[in-house]
Amino acid sequence: MSSKAIAREKIPDAVSLLKAKYRVIAPVPKGKTFVFKKIGNPQEVVLDYNTTILPLKKFFLPPDEVIVKYNLKKREYQEPEIESEPTVFFGIHNYELQGILRLDYAFGTGVKDATYLKKRENNIFIGVTYTPDDYHFAESVGIPTDLKEGFDIFLTKYNGHYRVEALTDKGKNIVSQWSEFLEDCSYDGDPVVHFKNKLKQSVAGIREIFHGAYNHPVWKETSKKCYSCGTCNLVCPTCYCFDVSDEVVLGTDQGARSRRWDSCQILGFTEVAGGEAFREKRYDRVRHRMSRKFAYIMDDRDRPFCVGCGRCIRQCTADISITDVMNALL
Amino acid sequence: MEAKNIYVPEVADIIRIERMTELETFYDIKLPGGRDLGHEPGQFVEVSVFGIGEAPISVSSSHLKKGSFEMVVRSVGNVTQAMQKLKAGDKLGIRGPFGHGFKTKDFEGKDIVIIAGGIGLVPLRSLINTIIDPAERKKYGRVIILYGSKTKEEFLFRNELETWESRNDIEYHVTVDRKTSGWNGNVGVITTLIPDLKLDLHNTIAAVCGPPIMYKFVILSLRSKGLKDNQLYVSLERKMKCGVGKCGHCQINNIYVCQEGPVFNYAYIEDLKEAI
Ligand SMILES: Cc1cc2nc3c(=O)[nH]c(=O)nc-3n(C[C@H](O)[C@H](O)[C@H](O)COP(=O)(O)OP(=O)(O)OC[C@H]3O[C@@H](n4cnc5c(N)ncnc54)[C@H](O)[C@@H]3O)c2cc1C
Ligand code: SF4
Ligand code: SF4
Ligand code: FES
């Protein structure tokens, strides 16, 4: 199949066509930043953006989600219904989808978590290239900008156009419906990109760095600046720890148990009856977050859980940088 | 997709409930149809109280007990205080059993030292009642139980303690931190019971459970007697919010206690800085 492209101006038409059949989630501007949102007006969609405030995980592991429902009178527990509406995620950066693939690993291995996995059915991902800002460092964690793993369609930007590559049958099906918006594509390269933010060493072997690093001074130094606010966890595409609590709807017999995003940076995260906390010092918690990203959890291909999106650096009020910390260890 | 909701509890009946001390209450729980829980000693379940919440609780009975299983719960917060108010005939939600317990097959032919501090006796009782069962007892060597309690008022399973004391195939030693009126036995922390033990160092294992502070001292003491790290088993408590390896709360470094524990061979976790 000869290569096809779509002009920037035709993107809203392509999105409109998708909207007829799917829920479409895409980046839209919000003040000076961007957010992923269900698209109403196709003109809202932006394909030139650095990063959204929150990652895509909010659609699969919502900030607050019912996991069990119950009836107090009948003394019954029930499974909540989980909707898995056919959805196209449009204009997605590759580190973002890599984040989802890491969550798939976390929720799909060991005990399988249907509450998460059900929402991963009926998804279509349409990727787009991006220009790294001062914070992205995905290349250093094995995610160069041309990695297309997991996408159904991938859009590569050039000269006011996007090259359109259909990578799966689902993708080909959509591209065939777009035919009236497409033109022939003359561009067959990959854009040259430079990451300003980098790790000194590539990820291969990075886990080993942690072996001798338990008492490295960088943990204490970093913790002196940290407020333990937990923002870095909330904005991270691969942080999935949660708290669980119950609520009864006032004046009814209906109750629900929900899970909510939680943060390992907060003292109470490990605190048990009697007041004992198992990562009592702030530096214990700083070390734990970084260790989880690069050493404690790896996927089945030994890839770390940090996907280099840079959000935890961009959004940290204390200017703590995971690349600075890692570079101090490397 | 074959995966199912792993968070929905099964509704079970409280068939007997008994206040043991000011804070601790005993529960006998029957699953639907009297089905066996199918646990191994040392495993735990997640217990739900309708409208309140869920908490991880050890199974205190042996898997040899059929038709129901037992728990003892110390009332310390939301869920556990609500549990204290329940009555026989009330319903609870149960998920599990979870994690890994004691593999009693590996203990056959060996002398077993059980060291329980306070409420640590609750999970260890599932092991004790397995190895001292009349039909099972001969599979194992000596059974030595060391029990430490703050005062005699806090003793759990009083009837059973008396039975252990009177049986001549069990060596039972008890101490209290603080003497209260009517106590004529040992006074001192649980480690004071260890130096006098005469152990066959090549054929002994020790199982330890108690408050967090206890492990370090007990392990030091057992090592100085000459037991090796791989002869020691510890049951560890951590905060738990899911029991299925997802919520992250129970993690000790890279290990999920709810999955690989709560019972660990000490040699396996010795190098984990956050373990003991
Ligand atoms: C594997 C395992 C086995 C256990 N077995 C028993 C048992 O057999 N009997 C028993 O009485 N207790 C047991 N516990 C402890 C019990 O789970 C907690 O006491 C209980 O979760 C407290 O819940 P709550 O809602 O009553 O308290 P909350 O209102 O939630 O909190 C009160 C206090 O308890 C702490 N806490 C919250 N969750 C936990 C937790 N999961 N573990 C410990 N502390 C917590 C809080 O930080 C707070 O300090 C076990 C814990 C684990 C991890
Ligand atoms: S966002 Fe920054 S200040 Fe807040 S917990 Fe994370 S590292 Fe600490
Ligand atoms: S650790 Fe930071 S840079 Fe890495 S994936 Fe999470 S938010 Fe992005
Ligand atoms: S209790 Fe949730 S991960 Fe272990």
Task: Explain the overall architecture.
The complex is a heterodimer of chains A (330) and B (276). Chain A is an alpha+beta fold. Chain A contains eleven helices and twelve strands. Chain A has helices spanning 11-19, 57-60, 94-108, 114-117, 169-177, 206-209, 217-225, 231-234, 282-296, 311-314, 322-329, and strands spanning 4-7, 23-30, 33-38, 64-71, 76-78, 87-92, 123-128, 153-158, 161-166, 182-184, 242-248, 254-261. In chain A, the strands form two sheets. Chain A has an eight-stranded mixed beta sheet. A four-stranded antiparallel beta sheet of chain A has the order 5-4-12-11, with no helix packed on it. In chain A, 40% of the residues are buried. The mean pLDDT of chain A is 94. Chain B folds into two domains: 10-98, Elongation Factor Tu (Ef-tu), domain 3, CATH 2.40.30.10; 104-269, Rossmann fold. In chain B, the strands form three sheets. In chain B, strands 10-9-8-7-11-12-15 form a seven-stranded mixed beta sheet, with helices on both faces. In chain B, helix 2 (121-131) links the parallel strand 7 and strand 8. The model of chain B has no long low-confidence stretch (mean pLDDT 95). Chains A and B meet through strand 4, strand 5, helix 3, helix 4 and strand 11 of A and strand 13 of B. The site of FE2/S2 (inorganic) cluster has 12 residues of chain B, from loops.
